[in-house]
Automatic annotation (TrEMBL):
Signal peptide: none annotated. Belongs to the ABC transporter superfamily. PROSITE patterns: ABC_TRANSPORTER_1, ABC_TRANSPORTER_2. Residues 4-230 form the ABC transporter domain. It comes from the Bacteria. Keywords: ATP-binding, Nucleotide-binding, Transport. Transmembrane segments: none annotated. One of its GO terms (molecular function) is ATP binding. This is ABC transporter ATP-binding protein.
Length: 303
């Protein structure tokens, strides 16, 4: 069982602070690193994989510093976000060359094993340039698995995948975790992280915003003032009913719609149809108006 310890780590690029005083511990199983675009996920993953030096703080694997420590790299596999640049190589040639870079005793056998792990045997003789997105992601996984590392770091592995490819990759990641590996993957999509991760770490603007299982993160995201847009046959009457009920902290009538800030989202969505019915108003539309992850995150960080 292998864990990565991140201790008060910061990383800046010139005067851009990408990671700011982050402390977390990534243990066995599947951890989701959730954060909006530009939050610092790739920067953190590259530091965890030993590709990037922290500007301050320490990253260790079972107590051994990761930066400039080749013995640690033997235990870590990293799948970067960018597309493979080796389109002219066949899948097998690519994985064999990775096995050679790791100076493995029998590069061909190691490559065969890694290719089998990701179920890509059938396409191993084809150039990578002819692969689908899902297949490219699998072959990149094989390249990170060729030295059989205990830790696997995946940067936005589901980007650009169709639903079927997503499900296949989720199964593969679950299988890798069931074998006892420590797996961390990044994503900016909450639903994706919820489906796969047993533990979630949230980063926003380079800072550690939240940590927990998906229920705790969900609760943090929904137990908050929530903006809802409502349209009905009589917005004015409905507004009075909502104000009288007291389940909203503000009600505004603008451009032919009601803008409501609900203090308790679940209670409000459950209650609204009843309020409307009692007031003799028909509802046309109820939609959350600040659903973007960014606003959720800025709330989490500001709390
Ligand atoms: N090499 C670099 N030079 C300067 N700034 C950088 C560099 N790499 C990243 N940054 C900046 O650091 C911040 C964090 O970037 P990072 O790529 O780590 O975020 P991310 O969460 O992975 O985002 P995305 O999902 O969009 O890749 C951003 O403001 C980004 O512009």
């Amino acid at each position: 069982m292998t864990s990565i310890q991140i201790q008060d780590v910061s990383r800046w690029y010139g005067n851009v602070v990408a990671i700011n005083g982050v402390t977390m511990n990534i243990g066995p199983g599947v951890t989701g690193l959730l954060g909006p675009n530009g939050a610092g996920k790739s920067t953190l993953i590259h530091m965890m994989g030993g590709f990037l030096e922290p500007s301050s703080g320490t990253l260790t694997l079972e107590g051994t510093p990761i930066w400039r420590n080749p013995s640690v790299y033997e235990n870590i596999g990293l799948v970067p976000e960018r597309e493979s640049a080796y389109d002219f190589l066949t899948g097998e040639q690519f994985i064999v060359s990775m096995a050679k870079l790791h100076k493995l005793g029998d590069p061909r056998a190691a490559a065969r094993r890694a290719i089998a792990m990701v179920e890509m045997d059938y396409a191993a003789a084809r150039p990578i340039g002819t692969y689908s997105k899902g297949m490219k992601q699998r072959i990149k996984m094989a390249s990170a698995l060729v030295h059989d590392p205990a830790v696997l770091l995946l940067d936005e592995p589901f980007n650009g995948m169709d639903p079927r490819q997503r499900i296949q990759l989720m199964d593969l990641i679950r299988r890798m975790a069931a074998e006892g590996r420590t797996i961390l993957f990044s994503s900016h999509i909450l639903e994706e992280v919820e489906r796969l991760a047993t533990h979630i770490e949230v980063i926003v603007s380079g800072r550690h915003a939240a940590s927990g299982d998906f229920r705790e993160i969900r609760r943090l995201m929904t137990d908050r003032p929530y903006q809802v847009t409502v349209r009905s046959t009589d917005d004015r009457t409905l507004a009075s009913a909502i104000i009288a009920d007291g389940s909203a902290s503000s009600v505004e009538l603008t451009d032919g719609k009601l803008q409501v800030e609900a203090t308790d989202f679940h209670r409000f969505t459950w209650l609204l149809p009843q309020l409307a019915k009692n007031a003799g108003v028909r509802l046309w539309e109820i939609s959350p108006s600040d659903e973007s992850l960014e606003s959720v995150f800025s709330y989490l960080v500001g709390k």
